[in-house]
């Protein structure tokens, strides 16, 4: 029997799993039948050995695989355990932080994110303390009133701002202006010159010897020499002229003598030209000064508080109530001397005019006694206020000569960037003066206050303060002649202002008496009242500006801020505006010699504000209001007071509609629909909206735990949306075409009063159409309002 082949298997094949597996695949074990006889004893041993080797090899391989797998699985289990423990630890740590971390509000979180180091309360306190600890207004006032020209005023303002650590910039424009060369007025009788008016004030010559032009003049008054008889026309209002015409007084072709007051100088010239005047003289009547007059026993300045009879009020005759700014570049800025310009026709008078003092108008007016009818009352000694006209042999020779040229003006813009990119607050005054040296009330008081506000803001910046919204302090140039500086700026930056500006605060002619006066958009009413309650009056901690304000009104029921603004920011762009000042109370205050050399530092220091605490009060109040409008996370506006005021005016105008058009049922229905729609807006929608605003504001100051982060994010989004609504509200009343005959004024609710040129008017479009008894215009204006009120209701909803 053949011997089985002996297969040699190396020993090292059992040492590794791979070799054994290979051997098992190539030499599988298959048991053979056992032989009955003659079998070699060595054969079973070989197979047994092989079997033994195969069994041992398989057992070793399985053990190795299982062991390795266990190690791998165990490693994965250890990693999962580690991650689980790490997550548990992190959760416990965060829970610990959440449990013990301080609860914060959105307002505080927002300031912390932007590295603002001061709370709102600290901002207010530091600002007020800074202005109360020191008062630099006396220094600024003295400096401004001793300046000899506009260039020195520019350099002084820029220098003071830079000392405070700011980097103001200059915006330069090139408007068309006029400058006086000669003015003369002579009285002629029977062909002889019997009186020659000097047109110069009895002011110490050493203080005005450096003045370029000492005589009185009117900016933008056209050149001309007129020799004619004359007539007294009182204030030159439409009613005055109607009275003259009703009494068949001949007024055409004559020189019209007008007294200052009631309406603007430009309006007087516009009316005089309309009624056929050949030229005009304008004087200040002491009667209009109230109780403080020489007739009532007061001494005249400089010995006393009454008006010096030689004072002359310089003024502008441009029609600023229709088209402010450079009359040759309406609706576009005069950024270059070489721009193409338009004719100023229709924006300035065509007849010459000159201002004259009460002292020098007297001999001229005395010639009218006994002629014509009596027209009003006054305090010109010996004059019985007969209108005239004068005899043909009694005439006035009037000469006005001016040069017209392109001049450079410079606005100063001091900008403090805020955290938010929109909602800018602008506070401004002008520094150009009618007289150099001089101009204490106008413009130096406002300029000095503006620098004091800058000092308070500088102190805040040194403490790490970052304003929530951008604040701009602006010093206008060219405002006296025609509001040129501000108008050019508006036309230059109209798009940016529409998108970003929230409010405009004006400090023009800031201190001319002791009676506080506010003319403001009612959106700011609540903010104004709170700021007044937080401002000490003249440094007295026991008496606030608000209490003084209420005391002056004489009635707790009188609205404190009921006068609408006449700001061009409001009327052209819909930027909510306000104007604040201390003006003459007409009872005890010294008389302000407006635009005169008597408007001096001595007058201010001796008779109006000796310690300059009124200046300090207005600086604290207006600066605090600026901060309150800029530092609140939610705009400090209230819709209800505004709409309530407009609704009251609508009711008044609807009565006029019924009176003027008594049988026009269609117009009555339209006006009643507008009134009803506005009623819903004033007494329902605005009330609900203001409550939502207040609730949202309170929520922004509500402390929340750290895990309310998502809720704070939603709250922040709601704040942004609400701010956009509040910022857009007043701009919804801006129309593209503007008001009839004065398209530069584009706001339907607020504009300068067309009939006095001094105050603001509510619903000017409807008012002007009613005065003209133009039925189609009344209907058009009412339909515009109806659409605007509907859009506003949608916005508030």
Can you characterise this structure?
- By secondary structure, this protein is an alpha/beta fold.
- The protein folds into three domains: 126-173 and 409-631, Aminopeptidase (3-Layer(aba) Sandwich), CATH 3.40.630; 176-406, 3-Layer(bba) Sandwich (Glucose Oxidase, domain 1), CATH 3.50.30; 639-796, Up-down Bundle (Transcription Elongation Factor S-II, Chain A), CATH 1.20.930.
- Helix content is 44%, strand content 15%.
- The chain has 24 helices and 21 strands.
- β20 (750-752) and β21 form a beta hairpin.
- The model is unreliable at 1-59 (pLDDT under 50).
- This is Vacuolar protein sorting-associated protein 70.
- Belongs to the peptidase M28 family. M28B subfamily.
- Keywords: Membrane, Transmembrane, Transmembrane helix.
- GO terms for molecular function: carboxypeptidase activity.
Low-confidence stretches: 1-59
Question: Helix- and strand-based class?
Answer: alpha/beta
CATH-defined topology of the largest domain: Aminopeptidase
The count of DSSP E runs of length 2 or more, i.e. the number of strands, is 21
Protein name: Vacuolar protein sorting-associated protein 70
Family: Belongs to the peptidase M28 family. M28B subfamily.
InterPro entries: PA_dom_sf, Peptidase_M28, Peptidase_M28B, TFR-like_dimer_dom, TFR-like_dimer_dom_sf
Domain Peptidase M28: 413-513
